[in-house]
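Narrative of activities, Objective 1.

The group set out to show that a structural description can be obtained from nothing but a protein's sequence at a throughput compatible with the screening campaign. Below is one input-output pair from the validation batch, recorded exactly as produced.
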Amino acid sequence: MKVSIWTAIIVIIVGLYDLAYAFNRRQDLQDKSSCFKKRRMGIVGFIILGIIFVLLGVFLLFVGER
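Output recorded for this entry:
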């Protein structure tokens, strides 16, 4: 599998952006509103996507360029 190094870097940047977005939204969890659970699930979703993208980008860095 031949993947450009730039593709791997872009995937890592997107993953880090998702993680940064989720961690910046943590303060929304402090509000005790009616849609508290929906917000928490949205933030957990961004954390999961961020982790997947970062791991995939690292994988592409090491395996893709052979």
